[in-house]
Specification:
The complex is a heterodimer of chains A (279) and B (323). Chain A is mainly α and 279 residues long. In chain A, helix 3 packs across helix 14 and helix 13 packs antiparallel against helix 14. The longest helix of chain A has 32 residues. In chain A, 46% of the residues are buried. By secondary structure, chain B is mainly alpha-helical. Chain B is 73% helix and 0% strand. In chain B, helix 4 packs across helix 8. The longest helix of chain B is centred in the first third of the chain and has 41 residues. Chain B is flat. The chains are: A mainly alpha (279), B mainly alpha (323). Chains A and B meet through helix 1, helix 4, helix 5, helix 6 and helix 9 of A and helix 1, helix 2, helix 4, helix 5 and helix 6 of B.
């Protein structure tokens, strides 16, 4: 592609640098996996071992058996939160984005301004105000309290709106002539034609819900409503730590998203590029 | 998806043509109804969790609200004064400004360099992209576990200390050492590892939108790689760079997760040696349950973020005027 670069030597050098950097970036994954399968004496040994002497699957079973830290429960909680948040947040954003792009009614620009206005406030700063509201509605230690505030993504509305602005009008008109109502056009024509957008933004939303920390830390105070990130952080504050179990927990916590990154990378990359550059 | 049946369409039209005014009315009504149905969930959600929340919190910030979120006990600017007089909060502000000043330029340069390198290679591009992006799948908490307990743990078995031992260095407590503040290395490398891939993706998208003929012209003129980068690539990435810098500033000023995970001991909130404004506010809100002071802090932090983004806009805006 770029014909300006200088020959084979430069190209070999580029590869060398990239390979070295890729190795550096992958080292933390390697060390984590290695430690997760080691025994306690091996992890704390002063001399370096490249690989564990045996695969200690016990680390994983003890992780899920520990009565003081409901790790299995926290995985289920995180799964429920992410599985509910991702489709709901993309659906709501797509609905609002479509209406704002394609249904001309009086007051439409005011509605757009109300939605865009929320983007002016930095996200993390809203945590305390939202805690006040959700707390007063009895949302502490509840699933809905953990989920609800993350479902309304004004930024995704903006992305969907610009996507629908460039949507070919003929298809909609055909649907209208076919006797579909506005809602029918949205449900039967628009939504099925937005799958790439929905996949990209849904994947990002899933990642965000799974990795979110500050909000579940405030709302999920009782161990029964811990998310996986909270359960993980509880390793760092407990008195005695079983190190291999800690690393096994970290592996379990990051595994779903690593798999997702490897499988759905195209959608994720698209989603990142889209949401980063529109801001 | 749609099957247009001309028969049904032509059958429907004469009937509605008989009463065109009525049809327009129902048309307008169904349009309004659809708009309301489609926007209602978003408006209600944002209304409650953003507008009501922020409005309430704003009022709380002028109110004495310990262990209560009821309004009414107005105290003017006391909460703001109390917070600004608190040395720990002021320290956290200094800390976050220093952290931002360090992490933003480093992340910017590193992600741009990676983007240019990855974009140059033909074979294996997707492998490199995956390798650099993969850390973005990891949460800050999980990364903090790896950094604190495996890479930079103070014991001899930590990776950093193992490497140090090769050069004859003694085991170093990376996180606990305050002077010199070695924990900065831990914080900065963690965030770089986690974020660089994301921004690299954005830069690659920017790079690929640069017209190829510019490079062909430069190559004909015999410009070298560095010269080409300086006079074509970097200027053409101007808008991308501004957007990315803005994202980086906002992300850095709101740092919380890894600071909490690395420095919190669980014993008492607020006793961590290294704190960001958000860690401080978390302690104020959850440990002291002082929602008035906590709210005041949220607005002070907002002010800081707005100020920084405004300054960035001004400085880069002026630079554009000169072009």
């Amino acid at each position: 592609m770029n014909r300006y670069r200088g020959g084979a030597l430069g190209s070999a050098l580029t590869y060398l640098v990239l390979c070295l950097l890729a190795a550096v970036f992958l080292i933390p994954f390697y060390v984590l996996l290695r430690n997760a399968f080691m025994s306690t004496p091996e992890v704390t040994a002063t001399d370096w071992h490249w690989l564990p002497s045996a695969l200690n699957w016990d680390n994983f079973s003890s992780l899920f058996d520990n009565p003081e830290r409901p790790f299995g429960r926290s995985i289920v909680n995180s799964l429920v939160i992410a599985v509910v948040t991702a489709p709901l947040s993309t659906l709501f954003a797509s609905m609002a984005g479509y209406a704002l792009a394609r249904i001309a009614v009086p007051g439409r620009s005011a509605v757009l301004a109300v939605i865009v206005g929320t983007l002016m406030i930095p996200q993390a700063v809203t945590f305390l105000p939202t805690f006040v509201v959700v707390g007063s509605l009895g949302g502490v230690n509840t699933m809905w309290g953990l989920i609800a505030p993350g479902v309304f993504n004004a930024f995704a509305v903006v992305l969907f709106r610009s996507f629908y602005l460039s949507f070919p009008a003929e298809i909609e008109e055909a649907g209208r002539l076919d006797g579909l109502s506005y809602l029918g056009v949205y449900g039967r024509i628009i939504l099925p034609n937005s799958t790439t957008m929905i996949a990209s933004l849904g994947a990002l939303s899933f990642i965000e819900a799974w990795n979110s920390f500050l909000w579940p830390l405030m709302i999920g105070q009782d161990p029964s409503s811990w998310t996986v990130q909270i359960a993980l952080s509880s390793f760092l504050t407990s008195q005695t730590v079983n190190l291999p179990e800690l690393f096994a927990g970290t592996v379990v916590a990051i595994l779903p998203l690593v798999v997702m990154f490897l499988v759905a990378q195209r959608h994720i990359v698209q989603g990142i590029a889209m949401s980063g550059l529109k801001s | 998806m749609t099957v247009t049946t001309p028969l049904r369409g032509s059958a429907a039209r004469p009937a509605s043509a008989a009463t065109p005014r009525r049809r327009r009315l129902t048309e307008r009504r169904s349009k309004a109804l659809a708009f309301i149905v489609l926007t209602a969930p978003m408006l209600l959600g944002l209304g409650l969790f953003r507008y009501v929340a922020i409005g309430w919190s704003f009022l709380l910030s002028f109110s004495e609200a310990r262990r209560t979120i009821a309004l009414g006990n107005w105290v003017g600017l006391d909460n703001y004064q109390e917070l600004l007089a608190d040395e720990r909060f002021r320290d956290s502000l200094t800390m976050i400004v220093g952290f931002t000043a360090l992490i933003v330029p480093l992340t910017f340069v590193a992600s741009l360099a990676l983007a240019v390198l990855v974009n140059r290679v033909r074979r294996g591009r997707s492998f490199f992209r995956t390798a650099f992006l993969l850390p973005a799948a990891v949460s800050y908490v999980a990364a903090a576990m790896i950094w604190k307990m495996a890479l930079f743990s103070g014991v001899p078995s930590g990776l950093a200390n193992t490497l140090g031992a090769l050069f004859g260095a003694d085991p170093t407590p990376w996180i606990q050492t305050q002077s010199p503040p070695l924990y900065w290395i831990v914080l900065v490398t963690l965030r770089l590892w986690l974020q660089v891939g994301l921004y690299m993706i954005l830069f690659i998208a920017g790079l690929q939108s640069i017209p190829q003929h510019l490079y062909e012209a430069a190559s004909l003129d015999g410009a070298g790689a560095w010269r080409t980068f300086r006079s074509i690539t970097f200027p053409m990435l101007r808008n991308t760079s501004i957007a990315i810098l803005l994202l980086m500033f906002i992300a850095a000023l709101q740092a919380f997760d890894e600071f909490y995970a690395i420095f919190s001991t669980g014993a008492s909130l607020g006793s961590e040696p290294v704190r960001t404004p958000l860690t401080h506010l978390y302690g104020v809100a959850l440990q002291d349950q002082d929602y008035g002071v906590g709210s005041a802090g949220a607005f002070l932090l907002t002010l800081l973020i707005v100020l920084v983004t405004f300054l960035q806009g001004r400085i880069l805006g002026f630079a554009r005027d000169k072009d």
